[in-house]
Amino acid sequence: MKTILVVEDERGINEMVCDYMEALGFSTISAYDGMEALKVFRKQEIDLVLLDIMMPRLDGTEVLREIRRESDVPVIMVTAKTEEGDTVLGLELGADDYIAKPFSMKELAARVRTVLRRSAPKQSTAPEVSEEEELVIADLKMDRAKHSVSVRGAHVELTAAQFDILAKLVRSPGRVFNRMDLLQAFQEDPYEGYERSIDVHIKNIRKLIEEDPAHPEYILTVWGVGYKMQDSE
C-alpha cells in the first residue's frame, strides 16, 4: 500500500483529501505545517507528498527544497490560482507536478496515480519492443530500460517528468511539439491551464543537458509553436 503525506494547514481540506485517498486504497499521514511535514517525512516511509505552498512555520517551497536535498520522492505542489510565481519556483526546485485550488478530488486522484506510475521502477521482465530502448542524439544518450541519461559521457539526474518529456523529443528529432503534446508525455489526461509548466520543465532540462542553456544545442524553441529536438544528422 502506497503512503501519501498530505501537507495542508487547513484541517478540513486535509481531512477531506486523506479520506478520499484512503477510500481509493492509499495510506495517508497528515501534517499541518512545514516543520511537522519534514519531521514526519524523515521518520516515515513516504511514497508521495501532496504539499501545499502557503503554510505556517515553513512554507511549501522551503519544505520541497529540504526534501530534494534528501530524496527524489514524488511531490505534487498544491497552489492557489494566484500563486503562479510559487508554482514556477516549485517546479524549478523539482516538484513532479502541481494542482491549483479549487480542485476536484477526481482530478487530484488522477494526478496522484499518474505521478506514482511514472516514478515506479521500470520492470525488466516485460521489455517494450515497440520503442527503442536506447535513444541517441549527438552526445546525448538515453536508456529507457535503465531510466538513465548521459551527456558527453556524464550521467544526468532527471525527474520522472523531465525524463518523459526529453524521451518524447529525442524519439522524434526535428519534429515540433506544442506544450499540450509534451504535457501528454507524463499526463494521460492533461488539463488545460497547465501547459505553461512545460516551459519550466524545459528550462530545467536545459540546465542539465546543455553546455550553455541560454544558447541550447539540443532542445530548440520554435517561437509561437513549442519545442523540438535538434535533427540527429
What keywords describe this structure?
233 residues, alpha/beta, Rossmann fold, Arc Repressor Mutant, subunit A, 2 domains, 11 strands, elongated
Q: What does this protein structure show overall?
A:
With 233 residues, the protein is α/β, with parallel strands linked by helices. It has two domains: 3-119, 3-Layer(aba) Sandwich (Rossmann fold); 134-229, Orthogonal Bundle (Arc Repressor Mutant, subunit A), CATH 1.10.10.10. Helix content is 38%, strand content 21%. It has helices at 11-23, 34-43, 60-70, 84-92, 105-119, 160-171, 179-183, 197-209, and strands at 3-7, 27-31, 48-52, 75-80, 97-101, 134-137, 140-143, 148-151, 154-156, 219-222, 226-229. The chain has a five-stranded parallel sheet, sandwiched between helices. Strands 6-7-8-9 form a four-stranded antiparallel sheet, with helices on one face. Strands 10-11 form a two-stranded antiparallel ribbon. Strand 1, helix 1 and strand 2 (27-31) form a beta-alpha-beta unit. Helix 4 (84-92) runs parallel beside helix 8.
